[in-house]
Amino acid sequence: MVSLATFTKDAVPVTDFDPYAEEVLIDPYPYYEQLREAGPVVLLERYGAYALGRHDEVHAVLSDAHTFCSGAGVGLTNFNTEKPWRKPSIILEADPPHHARTRKVVARVLSPASIGRLRETFEAEADALVDKIIQMGQFDAAKDFSEAYPLKVFADAVGLPAEGRENLLPYGDMVFNGFGPMNERFTSRLAKAEESVKWINNVCQRENLTPNGLGADLYKAADAGEITHEEAGMLVRTLLSAGLDTTVFTLCNAMLCFAKYPDQYEVLRENPQLARQAIEEVIRFEPTFHSFYRTTTKPVEVAGVEMDANQKICVFVGSANRDPRRWSDPDKFDVSRKATGHIGFGTGIHGCAGQMMARLEGDILLRAFAKKVRSIELMGEPVRHYNNTVRGFKQIPARVVAL
């Protein structure tokens, strides 16, 4: 049984818990249980940040953007007192009223009405990919399936050139590591990312995007005066950092869940229409995002704990999604569950702008999979991909049997 070392100071539990330790990244849930039971608010002593692990408190903080801002960074680094390692995102790390201007443009480009035009193409690509892995029999469910699909359909949708897409995942990996401490995991990714950053900056330019893609739509918003052309390029870059790794890892987590819980795959296989509901349960049960930060804008009390202004708070999404105060039998993977209310995409004004795109990709691919595949089983131990903020895999040896 995992046991966090805690003591109480000024009526607040204090812990030596390190959410970025490798053993935590492998299996954080026993630690999260300890964190939730220690109290609604716990001080992470080594990082000087408060931690929230219960659903209600996490939801409340994410829903109040005026008291708990993102402009000081959504990672551990406090932009009010420390220099950011990169230029802050103009949507993710912007507060009202500035946030509304860029969010409005991105929300429209990624709206159901906008991305609905992609469905037919996405379905054809999903069918082709599932046919391919069936023919392979044994395959890597991480690279051959979970990476292959978004790298094709999402990158095409944005309007990227086919050559050089291998730079996309290292770039996102660097960005998500940057939301944690400046540890070796981050610095090593940063040191290797020079070529990827160069490629990303180049393909985000208008002349390198296809004329009818989502990236071009952002530049059209700039033509209309809603944003500047420089901001359009920055928002394309945000699409690429936020829209790929997270979907890849969500699909990895889905494949592993169905391999580990064949009874739940059987439920989906018998009713592929449950694909959308199943992907929501995957995101609740094994969320890709596990934590990020907010910063207090004024003195505030959270669950009886008084906090000063400019205080970093870590919200543990992965813990909130397993909080027994919110979910019955939270550690059970159950695709028949109505997982509405999970915080896997965040919530409030900074809820994931691309969540409809992620849901579309997941729904279509899982549905195609369930219609053609009788079973999936592991053929070896999955190899975890370590990142300070998101959880997924770089290798999942698997075998499928066709219907």
Automatic annotation (TrEMBL):
CDD domains per record: CYP199A2-like
InterPro entries: Cyt_P450, Cyt_P450_CS, Cyt_P450_sf
Record keywords, A-Z: Heme, Iron, Metal-binding, Monooxygenase, Oxidoreductase
Signal peptide range in chain numbering: none
Pfam families noted in UniProt: p450
Gene Ontology molecular function terms on file: heme binding; iron ion binding; monooxygenase activity; oxidoreductase activity, acting on paired donors, with incorporation or reduction of molecular oxygen
SUPFAM superfamilies registered for this protein in UniProt: Cytochrome P450
Source taxon at top rank: Bacteria
Protein family membership: Belongs to the cytochrome P450 family.
Protein name as it appears in the record: Cytochrome P450
Organism: Neopusillimonas maritima
Origin organism lineage: Bacteria, Pseudomonadati, Pseudomonadota, Betaproteobacteria, Burkholderiales
